[in-house]
Design goal:
The chain has 151 residues and is of the alpha/beta class. It has a single domain, classed as Rossmann fold (3-Layer(aba) Sandwich). It is built from 6 helices and 4 strands. A 4-stranded parallel beta sheet has the order 2-1-3-4, sandwiched between helices. The protein is globular, with a radius of gyration of 14 Å. The two termini are 15 Å apart. The relative contact order is 0.20.
Amino acid sequence: MLVYFICTGNTCRSPMAAALYYKHLNDNGINYIQVESGGLGAYEGDKVSDNAVEACKELNVDISNHIAHRLRGKDLMKGNFFVVMEPIHRQILVEAGIDPEQVYLLGRPEGIPDPYKKDAEEFRKVRDQIIASFADLDHVLFTQAKQAWKK
C-alpha cells in the first residue's frame, strides 16, 4: 500500500509528515506501507525548509536530502491513499477524480497550518500537530485496508 502525503509546496508539511509517519510505522513494526510526498503547487527540485529539517532532526528523523516534487497524474494513479494538509487539497484531489474515501485530511477538521517562512518554533508546533494526528490516521487507514483485503 502506498500512502501519499500532500501539501502545497512539498518543502515543509508533507515531507515532515511522510518521514515522521514512516518512522511511526517502523517503530510499530509495520513494513507493508510505503510513504511518499508531493506538492500540488511545488516547484520541482526546491530544497526542503531548513526549519523542517531541524524540527525532524530533533526526533532523529533526517529529511535533509528531500527535494520538492510536484504532484502529477501518474502519482495519483499509483497512490492508494492520500493524506492532505488542507481542505482545499482534498477538494482538488476529489475534483481530479480521486475517490473521496481515499483522501484523508490530517488534523481534521481544520487541517495542518502551513509554517512556510515561519520561525523554528512554529515548525515544531506543526510537527507536533502532525504526530498527534497519527492515531486517527492509523484508525482510518487500517480500517480501509482491512476492508480492501476482504474484497
